Amino acid sequence: MNFWFVVPAAGVGTRFGGDRPKQYVPINGRPVITHTLERLLAIRGAGVLVALHPDDDWWPSLAMAGDPRIETVAGGEHRAESVANALAALADRAGGDDWVLVHDVARPCVDPADISRLMEVLANDPVGGILGVPLADTAKRVAPSGIIEGTEDRTRLWAAQTPQMFRYGLLREALGRALAAGIVPTDESAALERMGLSPKMIQGRADNLKLTRPEDVVVIGAILEAQADAAATGAPREQAL
Ligand code: C5P
């Protein structure tokens, strides 16, 4: 059984703004994409495919661009298309039952221990599942006008994170079907749910944040620093903060 990491990294970061795509913003001295890929490379034996924007001229300047363990493919217009392109590039190598772990390039704080746990918990699952956390805030439905229309019952609401781990064959079929129907799922799980399948939710760490807005840089920088301190001293991460 093979494991593949697919990293959609072809976004331009509209919500983030700035002079470069957010995955190339330096945090604690290194670009976000470098932090993220190092975490994935810590899981030995899995292939790593990164979907890049066709006009990306930042990637070749990274030391990591020459790493033989990393393969790049051209991304698409949306995240789902970027992932679909990476899956297509695996067609002659991946078996239908191989596991694919899709991980946002913009989540550099992911704990390799959480990835290992996801792989273990789902090892014999027929479908797969994702990391996520129960919603901490009260969730409101808001009209485009800014008026609050209602309050969701948050007891069963979770925020979906990545990695999202699914069988190669099922994931390829699910994304292909959704895209063919004109639906662009914002995560992999949504594509499988559409097919009537039941992915599992595995609770991850709340600090597996996605870099989305400029103010996230400071928070993610502090988390990465605390993780590095904890790794150096062996202390629990929360104490290093
Ligand atoms: O914009 P957002 O952070 O939600 O994007 C999630 C992930 O999808 C990011 O890692 C981004 O680089 C990726 N993406 C992509 N191709 C696109 C749009 C987004 O790979 N066309």
Question: Helices and strands in order, then pairings?
Answer:
Layout: E1 3-9, E2 26-27, E3 30-31, H1 32-41, E4 47-52, E5 70-74, H2 79-89, E6 99-102, H3 112-121, E7 128-134, E8 140-142, E9 148-151, E10 158-167, H4 168-180, H5 188-194, E11 200-203, H6 216-233, H7 237-240
Parallel strand pairs: 1-4, 1-6, 4-5, 7-11
Antiparallel strand pairs: 2-3, 6-10, 7-10, 8-9
Helix pairs in contact: 2-4, 4-5
The structure holds cytidine-5'-monophosphate.
The site of cytidine-5'-monophosphate has 17 residues, from strand 1 and helix 2.
Describe this structure in words.
This protein is an alpha/beta fold and 241 residues long. The chain has a single domain (3-234), classed as Spore Coat Polysaccharide Biosynthesis Protein SpsA, Chain A, CATH 3.90.550.10. Helix content is 30%, strand content 22%. Helix 2 crosses helix 4 and helix 4 (168-180) crosses helix 5 (188-194). It is globular and about 40 Å long. It starts with a strand and ends with a helix. The mean pLDDT is 94. Bound molecules: cytidine-5'-monophosphate. Residues 8-11, 23, 51, 75-79, 82, 104-106, 210, 212 line the site of cytidine-5'-monophosphate.
